Amino acid sequence: MSNQSPSVAVQELVKRFGDFVAVDRISFEARPGEVIGFLGPNGAGKSTTIRMLCGLLRPTEGKAWVAGIDVAREPERVRQRIGYMSQKFSLYNDLRVIENIQFFAALYRIPASQLRERVTWVLEMAGLTGRESALTGTLPAGWKQRLALGCAVLHRPSILFLDEPTSGVDPVSRRHFWELIHQMAAEGVTVLVSTHYMDEAEYCHRLVLIFQGRIVASGSPLELKRRELSGDVVLVECDNLGLALDLLQKHPSVQDTAVFANALHLVVSEAAADMAPLRTYLSTRGVVVTKMEPIRPTLEDVFVSLTANQGRSGKE
Amino acid sequence: MRWHRLNAIARKEVIQIRRDIRSLLLIVAMPLLLMVAFGYGVSFDIKHIPVFVYDREGSQQSQDLLKHFQASEYFRVVQSVTSYSEVVEALDAGWCRVAVVIPSDFSEKLKTAEPVGVQALVDATDNNTANVSVGYSEAVIQSYNRKLQLEWLQSHGQITLQPAVSVDARTWFNEDLESTANIVPGVVAIVMAVIGSFLTSLTIAREWERGTMEQLVSTPVTPLEVMIGKLVPYFVIGLFDTALCAGIGIWWFHVPFRGQWSVFVFSSTLFLTVVLSLGYLISVVAKSQLAASQAALIATFLPAFLLSGFIYPIDQMPAVIQLITHLIPARYFMTISRDVFLKGTSIDLIFDELLALAIFAFLLTFLATRAFHKKLS
Question: Taking the model in full, what pTM does it have?
């Protein structure tokens, strides 16, 4: 397939489970070499979308082409061209590392002439050289995750679907994992990855923000931050967080509020002009403000702001 | 279907079975346990029925009759009592199943050639044993009668007279009327049904439960490849267990094997295909190993035990139940196993049963692959 045509094209995809609409008319495209992040809270419909694109779940409505193949019509042909890593670790814990690799290599029918090279490559990539005969179940989470990635890319798929690949993995392993993803993208692999880690979203070329089954925004992390936030973000640290939150939500110049650990993030139209009146507003009502400063917006701010516009707070 | 992927699934399954001590134990222990439990535990032979005797006369002749009871291997005279109330008490307490009461005018009536009755009181709480006891009692009296008549004829200087008609019974296929000969080939069928479906019932459910199915189905492998790949190792295990059971039957329980091995192996193969696919179907539908294994046991063990003709002859069942038995695959193999073991039946005589099994095999395989497809979407 040419570099111009999309690796993944999705049109008005819908998945209903009874009355529940898990995925609601999602459309997007992904090009070769792109790393696309699906961002959203649990239950937003990220996994459902990925599973439909892998041919594991039949869409209720809409169309999806993966590597130019209609997924609903020919799921079997799609599967030879994609790699998939599910949310839950799903290799065989009672098989040795090498046995898992050989098993999936056989399922993907990797020719004997390439087998040795591919196995070596996977072991190196996953940092498991020398641990071939370890039982998979005994490996630490980060290693398992890399082995799962290795087994998913054994057959050099042109498209890779990763469903929350780094959940439960330590930060160092997560970083290493993302380096691997970027290496593959650089080689032309399209990567669709879902995550609810906002910091990981920054690694993606393009983000698709999903909330309650719908795409609420999409674009590069930078674009999203610029476009979706009309104002500035101000950080507030004070003694009575609950009271401050109540007060600020009633204030006309505050567009949005969110609690981040022990601080509040406010979205205001212009930080320079709005900060002083807000400080007075709070202190006259008995809140001791220890810190108030403009900050660079994070994706989380964008996400909170977007989901708040949908009529409900997306952050617990 | 690709041989390559089928092979990969089968090899993976073998590795998993080898590493799982429980399944290894099950493969060997379950047939042994069932064979021993049924081989020894289930017996339809009624012998050594405990008997109380109340001889009201105490003559030479009455004692002679009682000796006949004693000599029979079907009866065991436990005690001789001297009052009617003791007889009642013994029956009430279950010390005996039969009480024989000889009247006080026994020898006198015999002398005058008057008909004389000997009372047999039978505990009929177990109607089957009671029926058999009555039959045996009659047989004992019968033989005593013949002896008397013979003596009478001889004492009157007449030559011995043969009865006009007599039953000349030859028991075929199980000459010694041993119930183990009937039971053991049946147990082989039951063990195969239970083990076959039990082992495979776990295989797919385990993949659902552990989440490995998700990765498996994202590969180009097809449902048919998964099914055949997974069933092949269990098929080999099933054949091993069949041989084990048959071996125990032949060499330990001394059940004759008169048929051709090829016929037995061929029909076992067919029956195994049926039970393995049944277990597989259950496994696809159930999502947990526990639910799957229980369903497999209930779906195979009870029908195979009760409705296959193992214990209760099918032709003695009510018509409706007889119809239902046609849905029990074990029914057909039960017939085949007994026929091949005891009668040495050739393949053309069990054609109907083999055909029924083939239909089951085809149907269940089809349903299992369909259920797999459905489950995924």
Answer: 0.79
